[in-house]
Amino acid sequence: MYDTSKFVLKSEPVILGIESSCDETACAVLRGRKILSNRIISSAAEQAKYGGVVPEIASRMHTEAVDEVCRLALADAGMRPSDIDCVAATYGAGLLGALLVGLSFAKAFACVLNVPFVAVDHIRGHIAAAYLDKPDLEPPFVTLLASGGHTAVLHTLSHTRFEVLGGTSDDAAGEAFDKCARVLGLPYPGGPSVQKLAQSGTPCIDFPSALVKNSQSLRFSYSGLKTAVINYCHNAEQRGEPLRRADVAASFQRAAIDPLVKKTVECALAKGVKTVTAGGGVVANSYLRSSLNEACLKAGLEIVLPEKKFCTDNAAMIASEGLNQYMAGNFSPLSVNAAAAIPLG
Predict the structure, then answer these.
(1) CA-CA distance, 303 to 297, in Å (whole number)?
(2) How far apart (Å, rounded) are the C-alpha atoms in residues 19 and 27?
């Protein structure tokens, strides 16, 4: 009988993390915050043929890869299944079919081993990636969250609690990068493609800022920015003018990222914290990383940025958040189901 009330916490548990929310099948093993292994089998190349993620293809490829990626992660870590103290897996948000593959595998793993299971919110995983860069990091701090599905500034109060200071009114920054890439004819995934093109361009086009003006609250909006990029490209085409694609990419990148950096630092100073962290796929963007580093240095704030490979989807961040919940005794029942959407906060 799987009885969570009988589990005894260890001070430095071995956590097996599984991530399958989109097109990456990933597994990692952590001892405490120390990464022992981190494996990813990606279907991105297959998805690129269709210009984006096809849910059915992603689910099938997760089914084929999940056992293999876990075997590889355990072998890299020099661990046997019986060495695992806790299993953590993403239960949302993401593609339902994809989530169910990793979640079902993880629950079965925990049940057979009779160890605690933790269902992880993918977004909390992105926040917890900061602990991989600095294991002794302690809240409170301010976190910039910028991913394909969410854009927000958070006040991280403890290892398990955060307050949303502000977010996007419509689209997320990552989704805007993907849309911009499609308009410019760039390959999937869009974020890295836009960044690469922007490096040879000049941010000379006056696109609207992603920050909502005249707003009482801290709000961002990316729908207007996306529309401005689309209109600019279409107008140039209709006039028969050559499109300065690199300049468009650089100008879009500046309009999308500068407000995030500015408001994150302002929030940190207003809250009186000494540290800023960031998480989510957009945080792998080099322009964002350099801008945030520079802004925090000028403001006298410490900046903790996960390595780029821990900003995009990975299982190490899921295991890191699993550790947070494990130490708080927040175990999940095996009846927990996958969720396509989870409200932020």
Answers:
(1) 8
(2) 6
* 150 or 14: which leads in pLDDT: 14
Same domain, 267 and 213: yes
Of the listed ranges 34-48, 72-86, 155-169, 289-303, the least confidently predicted one is 34-48
Does 344 reside within a domain?
Answer: no
**Do 204 and 112 fall within a single domain?**
no
Residues 43 and 159 in one domain: no
List all residues 6 or more positions away from 239 whose beta carbon is below 8 Å from its beta carbon.
Answer: none
Cα 289–Cα 291–Cα 292 angle in degrees, nearest 5: 65
Give the residue among 254, 147, 139, 144 at the shortest CA–CA distance from 191. 147
- Give the count of domains, the chain: 2
pLDDT of residue 1: 63
Mean pLDDT of 156-177: 95
CATH code for position 298: 3.30.420.40
Q: What pLDDT score was predicted for residue 291? A: 98
Condensed to tens digits (0 to 9), the pLDDT of residues 116-127 reads 999 999 999 999
How many CA atoms does the CB half-sphere of 277 hold within 13 Å? 29
DSSP per residue, 78-105: T--GGG-SEEEEEEESS-HHHHHHHHHH
| Domain interval for residue 219 | 138-309
Identify the DSSP state of 135.
T
Alpha helices in the chain (DSSP H): 44-48, 55-77, 96-113, 122-128, 130-133, 173-183, 190-198, 223-238, 245-271, 286-299, 315-327
Q: Are residues 54 and 190 in the same domain?
A: no
User: For 81-136, how does the pLDDT look when each residue is reduced to its tens digit (9 = 90+)?
Assistant: 999 999 999 999 999 999 999 999 999 999 999 999 999 999 999 999 999 999 99
**Are residues 166 and 268 both part of a single domain?**
yes
As a whole number, mean pLDDT of residues 18-36 equals 96
- Distance of alpha carbon 52 from alpha carbon 193, whole angstroms: 13
pLDDT at site 215: 60
Domain co-membership, 101 together with 216: no
Which amino acid, residue 6?
K
Rounded Cα distance, 269 and 257, in Å: 19
- Of 34, 44, 24, 63, the C-alpha closest to 311 is 24
